[in-house]
């Protein structure tokens, strides 16, 4: 179950039975109790933790591997009372050593960035989160995805993401509220999903052959959401920032997009929004 001590504490592979303790650790850092997100991460990722000798968890990290090429890092948390003892850095190093992929990806809060840089992550961009009730939307040309679209969705995703996300994307029915596709002359021109989080619906992933198609997907997904939406935008894409502002969304917070190891594979010019910032 464990084979390494970090700052005197043993690392443990967590399972869904640890979910309440993960939520409590998140609360300690003023993170909202994102139960659905954690449940998905337990299904598709490797969740590592360090127990707090006084009960509950002292630290967590989730490493989700996509084939042999990319690991997405998320939910890096250390309880306030255990910070600055090396638990965060040690746990992340442990997860990276076990992932065995050529690259890793994450988005870093200001708290985490110095630690990630020390471990060898490089900043490659900025991710800005926009939220709110979307207004003034015009419908685009997308349609709801049918089960028969799945092979084409997986093929386009593998080409753009550069690593297989089959396990994640085949959870379309149970996890996503909506999943839409845009048809092009030679096959799929794009696809997009939306999933419900605690207080909003996240518009992601959006993968498209160009920005116009991506914006159509965002508008169509947002049109069918009741209540506020959230979009995580790489600020190197001004057209997406403009879309968010034009439709009444406001900027909440920003994180630094970071990569580790080899340059990320695929064609990221066609990757418009991540599934979530813990997954890429
Ligand atoms: C970011 C976070 C995970 C770091 O966890 P941590 O256990 O404090 O991390 P570490 O102890 O490994 O490293 C933090 C710093 O403490 C220093 N440190 C480590 N051991 C130490 C020790 N024994 N004594 C003093 N300082 C120490 C490290 O050098 C590091 O300094 P740096 O940030 O200047 O590089 C934690 O602050 C946290 O949970 N923050 C809130 C949630 C969050 O923002 N998570 C990141 C999401 S991307």
From TrEMBL:
SUPFAM superfamilies cross-referenced by the UniProt entry: Acyl-CoA N-acyltransferases (Nat) (SSF55729)
InterPro entries in the cross-refs: Acyl/Acetyltrans_Enzymes (IPR052729), Acyl_CoA_acyltransferase (IPR016181), GNAT_dom (IPR000182), YitH/HolE_GNAT (IPR041496)
GO molecular function: acyltransferase activity
Domain N-acetyltransferase: 9-144
Enzyme Commission no: 2.3.1.-
Uppermost EC category: transferase
Pfam family, one: Acetyltransf_18
Keyword entries, A-Z: Acyltransferase, Transferase
Signal peptide: none
Protein name (database record): GNAT family N-acetyltransferase
Natural source organism: Microtetraspora glauca
Lineage of origin: Bacteria, Bacillati, Actinomycetota, Actinomycetes, Streptosporangiales
């Amino acid at each position: 179950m464990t084979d390494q001590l970090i700052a005197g504490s043993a690392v443990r592979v967590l399972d869904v039975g640890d979910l309440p303790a993960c939520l409590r650790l998140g609360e300690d850092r003023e993170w909202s109790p994102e139960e659905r997100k954690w449940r998905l991460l337990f299904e598709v990722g490797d969740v590592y933790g360090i127990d707090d000798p006084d009960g509950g968890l002292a630290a967590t990290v989730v490493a989700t591997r996509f084939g042999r090429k990319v690991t997405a890092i998320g939910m890096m948390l250390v309880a306030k009372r255990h910070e600055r003892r090396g638990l965060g850095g040690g746990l992340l190093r442990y997860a990276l050593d076990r992932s065995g992929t050529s690259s890793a990806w994450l988005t870093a809060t200001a708290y985490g960035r110095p630690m990630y840089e020390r471990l060898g992550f490089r900043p490659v961009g900025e991710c800005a989160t926009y939220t709110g009730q979307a207004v003034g939307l015009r419908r685009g040309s997308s349609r709801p995805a049918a089960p028969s679209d799945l092979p084409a969705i997986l093929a386009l995703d593998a080409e753009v993401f550069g690593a297989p996300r089959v396990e994640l994307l085949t959870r379309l029915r149970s996890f996503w509220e909506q999943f839409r596709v845009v048809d092009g002359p030679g096959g799929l021109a794009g696809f997009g999903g939306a999933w419900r989080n605690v207080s909003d619906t996240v518009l992601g992933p959006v993968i498209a052959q160009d920005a116009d198609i991506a914006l159509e997907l965002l508008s169509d997904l947002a049109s069918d959401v009741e209540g506020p939406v959230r979009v995580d935008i790489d600020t190197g894409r001004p057209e997406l920032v403009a879309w968010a502002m034009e439709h009444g969304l406001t900027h909440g917070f920003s994180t630094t997009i970071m990569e580790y190891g080899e340059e990320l594979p695929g064609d990221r010019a066609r990757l418009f929004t991540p599934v979530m910032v813990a997954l890429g």
